[in-house]
Amino acid sequence: MNAAEIFDVVTGKSKKPILAKIGNETEDEARKRHSVDFSIWKRADKAQKWIVTSLDEQPLQYIMNCVTASGMWNKLLSVYEQMSDTNITIVQQKFYRYTMDPKDNIAGHISKLENLSRQLKQLGEPISESMLVKKILMTLPYSYRHFYSACYSMNSANRTLEQLTT
Fold first, then answer.
1. What's the pTM?
2. pLDDT in the model for residue 28
3. Based on the domain organization, do 6 and 70 belong to the same domain?
4. Can you give the residue range of the structural domain that contains 105?
5. Would 90 be classed as within a structural domain?
6. 18 part of a folded domain
7. How many angstroms separate the most distant Cα atoms in the chain?
8. Closest Cα partner for 119 from 139, 77, 89?
9. Are residues 28 and 56 part of one domain?
């Protein structure tokens, strides 16, 4: 959007100019200034086109009733902020409800939990390394009790993800 010089229009920072004299400005000077300001503001059409042509069919549905580029942008922000909260909740649920798949080995088990942890970090809700290690160990099946016991016999400061995977 910055490259297309439309960001101020999209965010609503740039408003439609009004033809009015400022200070000692003559009528002619006011018209010239308004003409320049209006051509800058006219980028709104460019901004709307940019938004509409950048969207897939589903998100396009969200903005069909919006009149301005700023309205479109605000609607999309609103929708995707809600989706982001929903995504955080979904990934957190996956993390906290996760149990080891009997078909997985330890490496696969760790990898799946690391992936969920990475997703949460990308969503702005990071899981601490100690929490991740605890989750990995707590979700091991009984057949891995020897591994679990060995890990918990270590000093908690040494119970790191790196130590767990070496």
1. 0.52
2. 87
3. yes
4. 98-166
5. no
6. yes
7. 89
8. 89
9. yes
